[in-house]
Amino acid sequence: MSVEGNTRAIEKTVVIDFSDRMSYGAYLDLDTLLSAQKPVSTPEHHDELLFIIQHQTTELWLKLVLHETLAARAALDADDIGTALKCVARVKHIQKTLTEQWSVLATLTPTEYSQFRNFLGNSSGFQSYQYRAVEFVLGNKNAGMLKVFESDPAASEQLSTLLHEPSLYDAFWQSLARKGYDVPASALDRDVTAAYTFNEDLMPLIKFVYENHTEHWAVYEAFEEFVDLEENFQLWRFRHMRTVLRTIGMKSGTGGSSGVGFLQKALELTFFPELLAVRTDIGR
To answer: How far is it, in rounded angstroms, from Cα 7 to Cα 279?
Structure first.
């Protein structure tokens, strides 16, 4: 069927009556979603809508990242490494989208942002409980962060639960131990409420897998998927820091942090330190 007059005819089979059917808008609850953008600047500044949508969409993607990482952990608890890696692969694609989003916010010039920044009060991305939840699941735990969410019981409860549960990495080593790999006790019995730190005891096993990857392909693939996950996370952090630097320079953050300096320190945090350290040892 050709297009005439630059108008595409609506096919007769297309449903157009939604008086008693579920529509696209109803399924996605668009009335709620599209009414959630509430600028607070007075008079309302044109660019505040960009700022709000940038952060709201980030929270939606973080919700999915958390959904997938928890599913990956559950799969590892069931010794299903294939399903776990499928979830991680999806997270990696989400991370790329999140990183690219910073280029949109970077169109906000310092002059434009300064015209509504003061209206934000002390609200800050630092207070994103979903971001903290993702960090906790991946092993960057910090019990002190719970104080930030004491006024939000639901967020506080979720983070407290995740604080006391094994991370994705913990679940991975537990699964390998059940599969017969010689996982050291220090990796199996560690305090899961503490931030994960480098464990020298794991290095022989990790090096063995890398040097015998053909016979241990599933574990080898998991190592590389985790490295991808960490690298993508660090790229996101870096783009965040650079976007903030571009927009507000070295000003303090609205939440009270030092701003760029505080974000730079996040680049020193790690999730899977042994998987990066082993690269120095391979081939020696």
So the answer is: 59
Written as six digits, the tokens of 113 are 């942002």
Q: What is the pLDDT of residues 156-166, one digit of tens each?
A: 999 999 999 99
**Burial class for 118, CB neighbours closer than 10 Å (0-12, 13-18, 19+):** exposed
**Residue (of 132, 103, 73, 72) closest to 235 by Cα position:** 103
Q: Which of 208, 267, 265 is nearest to 238 (CA)?
A: 267
Q: What is the pLDDT of residue 30?
A: 97
Residue identified by tokens 């993702």 is: 134
pLDDT, tens digit, 9 for 90 and up, residues 52-80:
999 999 999 999 999 999 999 999 999 99
**DSSP secondary structure code for residue 4 in this structure:** B
Residue type, 125: G
**CB burial of residue 184 (10 Å; 0-12, 13-18, 19+):** middle
**62 in Cβ contact with 142 (< 8 Å):** no
- Alpha carbon dihedral 32, 124, 246, 235, in 10-degree steps, equals -80
Q: List pLDDT tens digits, range 241-275.
A: 999 999 999 999 899 899 999 999 999 999 999 99
- Count H helices and E strands in the chain, helices first: 13, 0
Q: Give the residue among 4, 100, 113 at the shortest CA–CA distance from 49.
A: 113
End-to-end CA distance of the chain: 66
Question: What span, in angstroms and rounded, lies between the C-alpha atoms of 127 and 55?
Answer: 12
Largest CA distance in the chain: 73
Q: What is the pLDDT of residues 188-197, one digit of tens each?
A: 999 999 999 9
Provide the 3-class DSSP secondary structure of residue 7.
Answer: strand
Tell me the C-alpha distance between 70 and 81, whole Å. 13
